[in-house]
Design brief:
Blueprint: H1 7-12, H2 19-28, E1 33-34, H3 41-47, E2 72-76, H4 84-93, E3 99-103, H5 104-109, E4 130-132, H6 139-154, H7 160-166
The chain binds iron/sulfur cluster.
Length: 171
């Protein structure tokens, strides 16, 4: 009995895919986060790797202490003025391509800390690809953000810093 694949089915099959698509699949299946827990949101971030949430299912459980071994920065918590240059340096030390998730109200907008000491949104410091709302966002919300990022990678959407550079802005 012959195998009768439609053109679409054939395109989807691994053997007939392009090297580029396979590269994207490999990349999205092994996004390694750099730990950047700054406040209470970090507790929820840490939970995603435990057995209840099991982020390993999506290949993103390998949190690295070194930015050289990470391609995703999850900013979990408020960013102080003093921490901003450190955060920027760590982001610069991460190899390309790299992505940033802003986790929680404080990281995305300063949250309840509308004062001189706190950066009112980490996108003033590094380009952000995904914003996860909440105070704190629960582990499922963070995982949803990671899945959205994986979709972007699979679709070939460049990271935010690359898009900014293409538009002539300094990331
Ligand atoms: S968003 Fe809420 S839980 Fe997260 S760091 Fe700010 S105050 Fe804490």
């Amino acid at each position: 009995m012959g195998l009768n694949l439609t053109q679409k089915e054939a395109e989807k099959s691994l053997l007939l895919t392009t090297v580029e698509k396979m590269g994207r699949w490999a990349q999205k299946s092994s996004v390694w986060p750099a730990t950047f827990g700054l406040a209470c949101c970090a507790i929820e971030m840490m939970s995603v790797t435990n057995s209840r949430y099991d982020l390993a299912r999506f290949g993103a459980e390998v949190f690295r202490a070194s930015p050289r071994q990470a391609d995703l920065m999850i900013v979990a918590g408020r960013v102080s003025q003093k921490m901003a240059p450190v955060l920027r340096t760590i982001w610069e030390q991460m190899p390309e391509p790299k992505w940033v998730i802003s986790m929680g109200a404080c990281a995305s907008s300063g949250g309840v800390f509308d004062n001189y000491a706190i950066i009112q949104g980490v996108d003033h410091v590094v380009p952000v690809d995904i914003y996860v709302p909440g105070c704190p966002p629960n582990p499922e919300a963070l995982m949803f953000g990671i899945l959205k990022l994986q979709e972007q990678i699979m679709q070939g959407i460049p990271p935010k810093y690359q898009r900014l550079a293409m538009e002539g802005h300094t990331p």
